[in-house]
TrEMBL record:
It comes from the Bacteria. It comes from Saccharopolyspora cebuensis. Pfam families: Peptidase_M23, SLT. Residues 92-173 form the Transglycosylase SLT domain. This is Peptidoglycan DD-metalloendopeptidase family protein. Residues 205-299 form the M23ase beta-sheet core domain. CDD domains: M23_peptidase, Slt35-like. InterPro entries: Cell_wall_metabolism_enzyme, Dup_hybrid_motif, Lysozyme-like_dom_sf, M23ase_b-sheet_dom, Transglycosylase_SLT_dom_1.
Amino acid sequence: MLRILVTAAAAFLGLLVTLVAAVTGTIATLIPTSSAPSAAALADIPADYLALYHQAAPLCPGLDWAILAAIGKIETDHGRLDAPGVHSGENFAGAGGPMQFLQPTFDSVTARHTLPPGGATPPSRYHPHDAIHAAAHYLCDSGADNGDLRAAIFAYNRADWYVNKVLAQAENYRAAATTSATSAGWALPVQGRCTSGFGPRPGGFHRGLDLAAPTGTPIVAAAGGTVLNAGPASGYGLWVRIQHTDGTITTYGHNHTNHVTPGQPVHTGQLIAEVGNRGESTGPHLHFQIDTGNGALDPEAFYAQRGLRLCP
């Protein structure tokens, strides 16, 4: 009898472990990790909105920026939808703003959470900064912080089709783990055309590579690290400098707008700035520079060693 009980107990324990593993695995597939934006995301999402999605997501551990971006896309096309309730007023359901909050829901979120500086005073559901940060808090309060992302999205709009659409759009916005634009932890900093290479040129030695692109084109972190500088700089007009984990420093110059601050950690592919024409510049472009303890490196050769092409 004892032997039968022990055997039954062991079988039950094995079944319990299997169920726990299955549930854990299911939840794990729904918990996003910090990801880089895909080419589709960079082409579709306005740079200021992309920066806000990246800034707001860390308010909720386990929430990826792409989920916020997917909601913003589906609700109002990142504030570009020409319809009642996007910039003022309300839609037929009483929702308003780029993330389509009901006013009582927005008020409830902002009563529980203090939104970071940068928005309206008092906070407004029509202000992109406030709406996106409030959405991050709302998703977190609805289960995203416990790994139940599906429940959190369902709470935002109570329909299974909506949940599936958000998850699919988020996947489209995430860069694949291995693509032609990323390799060995490095990503192309901008989608542009090489115009002036590394090396001697009239007037001196060019310590970086120039990539021409329209003003406002997103600039992303070439690799993960910590922002050293972000602001005005002689010759560059406006720059960002990032120190990476191996000690390498990358520089991004002539920027139109920066989206990071000194001391801020960044991950590979994160939006950091927009292409501009500031400083000593003859047209909109990114000056991209890579420095090590031994001096500046040729960015094109550096990327080629990692299987990437800066200049297609």
